[in-house]
Amino acid sequence: MGIRAFNPDVTADVDLTCHEFNALVDTGATRTSISQNVVNKVGLERRGTMPVGNVKRTEHHHTYHFYVGIWPETQDDSLPAFFGIGNEILGIDGGDSRFYDVLLGMDIISQGCLRLDLDGSFELGFPD
């Protein structure tokens, strides 16, 4: 999946650079969270904090605005179509994992259709 920075300045030149990261789909997460690697690589700025509850306690996390895009795998070496998802996302810092940089939450998943198969594979589609 791809992440690009959000710029609230509507008069600024738009930077469409999208950085690729591994993501984990988490239907139990209300909000998408990102690692420090994403913050550093994309150059995201903190926008504030928000309380986030987990099974143990409520903690305050830094918030970031960014855009999310997904491109499907292709059967050949052709360039896949890029799909941007909606408006800017208000995500949170979510710690670091060696397996993924983005935890894709229901704030994004609910904008599309998720199908999970018994073998662990899934399809995530979005309306045209």
Q: How many distinct domains?
A: 1
N-to-C SSE string, H for helix and E for strand: EEEEHEEEEHEE
Main sheet properties: 8 strands, mixed
| Count of DSSP strands | 10
What is the CATH topology? Cathepsin D, subunit A, domain 1
Determine the CATH superfamily: Acid Proteases
Coarse structural class = mainly beta
Helix content: under 10%
Low-confidence stretches: none
End-to-end C-alpha gap: 18 Å
Radius of gyration: 15 Å
Do you know the CATH architecture?
Beta Barrel
Mean pLDDT: 85
Query: How many H/I helices?
Result: 2
Strand content: 35-45%
Molecular structure report:
The protein is mainly beta. The chain contains two helices and ten strands, in the order E-E-E-E-H-E-E-E-E-H-E-E. The strands form two sheets. Strands 1, 2, 3, 4, 5, 6, 7 and 8 form an eight-stranded mixed β-sheet that branches. Strand 9 (113-116) and strand 10 (122-125) form a beta hairpin. The longest helix is centred in the N-terminal third of the chain and has 7 residues, at 36-42. It comes from Novosphingobium album. InterPro entries: Aspartic_peptidase_AS, Peptidase_aspartic_dom_sf. This is Retroviral-like aspartic protease family protein.
